[in-house]
Design a protein that fits this description.
Elements lengths: L6 E3 L10 E2 H15 L5 H10 L3 H12 L9 H4 L22 H18 L12 H19 L25 H16 L5 H4 L2 H25 L14 H19 L13 H5 L8 H8 L8 E5 L6 H14 L5 E6 L2 H11 L15 E4 L7 H4 L19 H9 L2 H4 L5 E5 H5 L8 H9 L1 E5 L7 H16 L3 E6 L4 H14 L14 E6 L2 E6 L8 E8 L2 H13 L4 E4 L3 H14 L6 E4 L5 H15 L5 H4 L3 E4 L2 H5 L6 E5 L3 H8 L14 E5 L17 H6 L3 H14 L1 E4 L3 H9 L8 H24 L31 E9 L5 E3 L7 H4 L1 E5 H4 L10 H10 L7 E4 L7 E3 L3 E3 L10
Parallel strand pairs: 3-8, 4-6, 4-7, 5-6, 7-8, 11-16, 12-14, 12-15, 13-14, 15-16, 18-21
Antiparallel strand pairs: 1-2, 3-9, 9-10, 11-17, 18-19, 18-20, 22-23
Helix pairs in contact: 1-3, 1-9, 1-10, 6-9, 9-16, 9-19, 12-13, 20-21, 20-31, 22-23, 29-30
Length: 896
């Protein structure tokens, strides 16, 4: 019956003990949790206040329960998985098969024995057994409290209809449940557990705990992962009292946290001005930045919405607010969420070392980039942690915590939400809402942070619905958030503010202010809307010139070239961009000055083109470099590159996108220049267009923007105003397209508008259906179980799935090789992302090459779950470093 007869870890290194005893592993994990939950940490204080328990009492309760996370390993069925040598342990019982994971078996043992342990004093319960009604409340509360602990493998578990005798043994040598009982009793005595009886029998307190149970689950997972690192927690198979081992576990845990970067949260410093950041006393804050410097930081969770034009310093204003929030104890770190990988890269580079100014010099805060192509960013690669040796993977789909931890430490997309400062796509944060394994780790990371969401207007209805839910949860957890936008409709601002207030348990409050720029602040019984001025240098007026045909657009491009200007033509589809590039190249006197940039380039060429664009059209480009340059691009140009052109042509698009594209028109001060003009390719104006109004001129555009009423309203307001005037007419421009304008939409476009609104409702319903009901807490609900391993749920709603296609070629010897062979990260650089329907048009890998392809996959992990494409063997589709991927024969023979 001794709990020293059970192993917890069983794959030693040379020279180690042959196993690590289960009680010691349990204390290792508890020691990590103990240190992560230091009472002085903001998160511990926040949970303590929310749950109305002293930090010390809450810490002892949660850490005691965390120490029970592996109770299921007392099952003889689990003990039979490994049989360490040279140590007497409980013998296997052959009839007991390990067919259920140990986390679920722990929940089973607790369900079967907790009342008995309460009665006999094992659980150190003070006083008599509670009466029946209170015992029912206690049962539900303990289920909620232990769910994060037993669910430490990333999903909540329930014992269901399992029988204890199917997995736990009782023979002449040992009774598994009795060994577990003795461990629980000794552990409760060691931790000096003091049950908060009045809380545990309160329904209201249980509901409060359910609200924060996702954060507690993330804490439990992180504790288990770090506490399972055999490099930091030496195996021990020699029995010793728990009180003797506990100090060792704490020392090991201190070292593990230190090396993983969690030993001590960075110490924030008060904001001291822009001059302190940049070392330049001449730096003058913008009006938005001045307001961020001086506004009152209230108590409790805060939401800030910053609306201002491009170039007004929104990022710096957000950083000012973030530093002030950190210094006021509203978080331990930051997460910057952006719409795309490209914008994430740009923000990561832009922050540089600025984030270090938020903390003391000794803190050395970590800053991690998070997205699918992060390895291609050299700045980021310097921050990646080395992998660790792997531990044993158990049966019954039971990946060990060490293996999880190894992969996690090598996967910055997960680590980004735990780093002191994370920069990545908004998807990484939204995944915390969806039933992905370990999603609670993301919520735990976010609960400790100020969440900054840039370009908040850029998300579709599906993502907006998820974002609203994330904001509501972040407010419930006590976090703060800052949202940035240049083109937000009023209805979206009201929706975001209402979501925040919902998280605070408050009714929506109407927002009245129509001015732009604007700072909105929302908190407990707090609502401020502050109209702001703009710097004169960011006030702009961009004329509008209308083009009715592609031929006119090409003529406009050539006229700009003849005038010695540089020009960009932003198209709405890749195929349209390729066709325009072909036409311009034929007429350009120097085709080498033409660039094509779209999403169907392999990453190796996309990086090269980005560098070319920046060199030719970037902030430091010279007049000679710029003269006669033409960029034909899709929206990838407007998303992230800090470039500008003298003249721009754009296909008609919704007003917010045209404003964004116009932001790349004469963005930097140069002279001499004519007044900026945006030439818009659009159908001939009609007061009463029919359903084919857009398709006749721009069929590809209609396929992208199905609600043609948005484009007609955009054309209408631009024709009325004659120009884009920012910030003076920003609100008018946006509300004239996205506001209450349904009565203005012609009958011929109503069907498309109604269809799109219906799709938006479906998208919102899909988001609500896919998202976890966070208010119900970290529990498994068999009647509505979303935790299915085979579910493929995304943070973005797309018409069809996307695939990563790997471009391959043959060597002179006929061997299969990567398109970017010889480059660093060649496997990733050889890939292009396509819609599934597009990928199906590519020729399959010819026979005889399968073995070589499998060998390539073995050598390059990045090739997993990708589709191979041997370019030269495809007689229908082709690829060229200048054109990208085309779904027909090469579009032109022009040398570029």
């Amino acid at each position: 019956m001794s709990y020293y007869l059970y192993w917890g870890k069983a794959k030693p290194r040379d020279g180690d003990d042959s196993c690590h005893l289960l009680p010691f592993h349990s204390l290792d994990v508890a020691a990590v949790g103990w240190l992560l939950f230091k009472p002085g940490r903001p998160l511990a204080q926040r949970l303590s206040t929310y749950l109305d328990l002293s930090p010390d009492a809450l810490r002892r309760l949660l850490v005691f329960l965390l120490g029970l996370h592996d109770l299921g390993k007392f099952a003889r069925a689990f003990q039979g998985v490994a049989r360490p040598e040279d140590i007497p342990l409980v013998p296997p019982i052959e009839r007991l098969a390990y067919t259920e994971r140990h986390d679920r078996l722990g929940a089973l043992l607790w369900q079967a024995r907790w009342i008995e342990w309460l009665r006999d004093g094992t659980l150190q319960w003070p006083g008599d057994m509670p009466p029946r009604r209170e015992r029912l409340q206690l049962s539900e509360t303990l289920r909620a409290l232990l769910a994060p602990m037993f669910g430490h493998h990333g999903q909540p578990v329930e014992p269901g209809r399992l029988e204890l005798t199917e997995f736990f043994g009782d023979d002449d040598i040992a009774s598994d449940s009795e060994a577990a009982r003795r461990f629980v009793a000794d552990w409760a005595d060691l931790i000096e557990l003091d049950w908060p009886v009045d809380k545990l029998v309160s329904k209201e307190w249980r509901e409060a705990f359910l609200t924060v149970s996702w954060t507690v689950a993330g804490w439990a997972i992180l504790s288990d992962w770090l506490g399972s690192n055999r490099d930091r927690f030496a195996y021990c198979q020699a029995a010793m009292p728990l009180a003797e081992y506990w100090p060792k576990a704490l020392r090991y845990a201190e070292r593990a946290l230190e090396e993983a970067g969690f030993a001590q949260p960075p110490e924030p410093v008060p904001y001291a001005g822009l001059a302190d950041w940049f070392g330049d006393q001449s730096v003058t804050p913008t009006p938005l930045q001045k307001e961020a410097e001086s506004l009152s930081i209230g108590e409790g969770p805060q939401l800030f919405i910053l609306e201002d034009v491009t170039g007004a310093g929104k990022t710096e204003a957000a950083c000012i607010l973030a530093q002030r929030l950190l210094a006021a104890g509203h978080g331990e770190g930051l997460y910057f969420a952006l719409p795309t990988m490209a914008t994430s890269n740009a923000m990561y580079e832009r922050l540089g070392h600025l984030h270090r100014r938020f903390y003391t010099e000794a803190s050395r805060p970590s800053c991690v980039l998070a997205h699918g192509a992060r390895e291609l960013n050299d700045t980021y690669m310097q921050a990646v942690a080395a992998e660790q040796p792997e531990d044993r993977d158990y049966a019954a789909d039971d990946m060990t915590a060490t293996t999880r931890c190894n992969r996690w430490l090598a996967d910055s997309r997960k680590k980004s939400l735990l780093a002191d400062v994370g920069v990545g796509t908004v998807d990484q944060a939204l995944m915390g809402l969806l039933p992905f394994r370990h999603q609670s780790l993301r919520l735990y990371g976010l609960a400790r942070k100020v969440l900054v969401v840039d370009e908040v207007h850029a998300y579709d209805h599906y993502m907006q619905t998820l974002l609203n839910q994330l904001l509501a949860h972040h407010a419930r957890q006590g976090g703060s958030a800052i949202l940035l936008t240049a083109t937000m409709p009023r209805a979206m601002r009201e929706s975001l503010a209402a979501a925040w207030r919902e998280g605070l348990g408050q009714a929506p409050a109407a927002l009245q202010e129509e001015d732009f720029p604007l700072l909105t602040q929302v908190g407990h019984d707090l609502k401020r809307e502050v109209p702001l001025a703009s710097r004169p240098e960011v006030s702009r007026e961009i004329g509008i010139d209308w083009l009715a045909t592609e031929e006119q657009a090409v003529d406009t491009v050539m006229a700009a070239i003849e005038a010695g200007e540089c020009v960009a033509w932003v198209r709405n589809t890749v195929d349209d961009a390729i066709r325009a590039y072909e036409q311009v190249c034929r007429r350009h006197p120097d085709p080498e000055r033409c660039l094509l940039f779209h999403s169907r380039f392999a990453m190796v060429d996309r990086q090269r083109i980005e560098s070319d664009v920046i060199e030719r059209l970037g902030k430091t480009s010279t007049p000679d470099q710029r003269r006669g340059q033409v960029l034909i691009s899709t929206q990838v140009f407007q998303e992230s590159l800090d470039c500008d052109v003298d003249h721009m042509v754009s296909d008609l698009a919704p007003i917010d996108l045209l404003i964004q594209r116009a932001g790349r028109l004469q963005r930097h001060v140069r002279s001499p220049r004519r007044a900026p003009v945006l030439s818009v390719l659009a159908p001939e104006w009609s007061d009463e267009p029919d359903a084919q109004w857009l398709k006749r001129t721009l069929p590809g555009t209609q396929a992208v923007y199905r609600d043609t009423s948005l484009l007609w309203l955009t054309q209408r307001v631009l024709r009325e105003l004659g120009a884009i005037r920012m910030p003076d007419q920003a609100r008018t421009l946006i509300e004239s397209v996205y506001g209450g304008v349904v009565d203005l939409v012609p009958d011929g476009l109503q069907e498309a508008r109604i269809e799109q609104h219906g799709m938006n409702r479906v998208a919102g319903a899909m988001a609500n259906f896919n998202a976890l009901t966070l208010e119900q807490g970290y529990l498994r609900h068999p009647e509505a179980d979303q935790w299915q391993e085979e579910l493929e749920i995304g943070t973005r709603l797309v018409d069809e799935p996307t695939l990563n296609v790997v471009l391959l070629e043959r060597t002179a010897e006929g061997e299969l090789t990567l398109w970017a062979e010889g480059e660093r990260h060649a496997a990733m650089l050889s890939q292009v992302k396509l819609r599934q329907g597009q990928a199906e048009k590519l020729a399959g890998l010819p026979g005889g090459y399968q073995a070589q392809w499998e060998a390539l996959q073995e050598r390059h992990k990045a090739l997993r779950f990708t589709q191979p494409w041997l370019v030269e063997a495809d007689t229908t589709c082709g690829y060229d470093s200048h054109w990208g991927l085309v779904f027909s024969a090469s579009p032109a023979t022009t040398t570029t």
